[in-house]
Amino acid sequence: MTPAAAPVTDRARRFLAVGAGGALVGAVGLAVWRARRRGAAPPETGTGVAVRHRSLGARNARLVGVGARASGALAVHRARRVFADAERREHLDREFELRTAEQVADALGQMKGALMKLGQMVSYLDQGLPEHVRLALADLQRDAPPMHPELAADVVEAELGARPEELFDRWDPEPLAAASIGQVHRAVTHEGEAVAVKVQYPGIDEAVGADLRNVDLVFAGLAQLFPGLDHRPLVSELKTRLAEELDYHNEARNQSLFAATYDGHPFIQVPKVVARYSTARVLTTELAVGATWDELLGWSSHERDLAAETLYRFAFGSLYRLGAFNGDPHPGNYLFRPGGRVTFLDFGLVRHFTDDELRPFEELIRAMVLDRDPAAFRRTVEQIGLLRPDEPFSDDLVSEYFGHFYELVLHDGDYTVEPEYASETVRRFFDQRGPYGEIMRAANVPPTFVIIQRINLGLYALFGELRATGNWRRLAEEIWPFVSAPPSTPMGRAIEAWAAARGDGSA
Fold this sequence. Notes:
This protein is an alpha+beta fold. The chain folds into two domains: 3-142, no CATH class; 291-507, no CATH class. The protein has 22 helices and twelve strands. The strands form four sheets. Strands 1, 2, 3, 4 and 6 form a five-stranded antiparallel β-sheet that branches. The protein has a three-stranded mixed β-sheet with strand order 5-9-8, covered by helices on one side.
């Protein structure tokens, strides 16, 4: 093939999706990357406005503008690479990816809200991104551009009745972290207690509302691509969960539940809520310390495996023992200490399950993992609405497709979660061209499965980055209440001793 006919590379094409035809979907995947590293200015500094582009029209116009600019840049990029040799084309593709990503960051980096949250999810989800862009996106996992210190102080005063410098003995005006809904400040109470104060961005409720009005359109379009998808209950579930995140009273209740459940746990720590400094838009908790996700990646494989074991026990133990799932497995929501000790932060996106809602999970596990019964698995899949009863797929094909999501626990033995596992998981959801395209288009996502899929699309992606190794089958059998196997690891035995000392059977 001559240089003039050489196509744009596949990986470059992934990022060209931010062009006119794919502005929304492509943009959220690259939102706000490197904003912290580039030293982006605080949003609307000095104006008293914390969240830009609150209205639906303004936020849509911002996205359309990104698409138009990216479309023009694509035309220029294609012209430049026509007469370039292979090495030069690779350089141009790399340069174009980064430049386009920065344009998206400029557009969305300070918009905050649901779009930023979706961008954060994509930033650690897609193992197929080019490495240099994945490294750039890592900043999105930690921090977003903060609001001006005076805006944060204004929110504290409006909610708690006094300036933070008066309420607290010490107040750090520079945020410890900034995210999609609010930012966190260090403080010390007059009683000498070190605390973390999360302050919600002014106007974020309007911004999230505008974003959520877009959700109907996005998922209605997806329903055309995925005929089996009933988008209406899915959209309703997403709206409910994201709206709950805006209510810090709700988050305080969630966090208090988890903190009480794991009080004194040898490996899981949840900071306690300081109620007297908490309102609907300000949430104050104990200040937690520990290593970040990036630091954990540099620890030994043994320490990474212990951290992964704790993350696994927390996710599934909370689901089956507590009937609650913290649906935001974001690497910035964890702090790590040696020996597998993990502090869990941010409980805004929590889904509570009834016994009736949990029962299908048990039935699926029994059929797929314990009994290896494809026909029974197919019946349960249809009963709970993952697949319509009249689809022309064999029981074995249904089990083969969905069986990927149980791969960690199908066999009794050590299993290393590789990045490729997470990439394959993403393809099972979205790649219509793959070998399971037909069944994927026919599949549905019932409301109770919307948030729980964050295990498949989020937690396991993090495990892949850790290359976490463990006998997940035995860990699961400890946690599953319908098996309740004895401890299989030193961590499990320590937890059993802690639960026995509490006298409540919690593990």
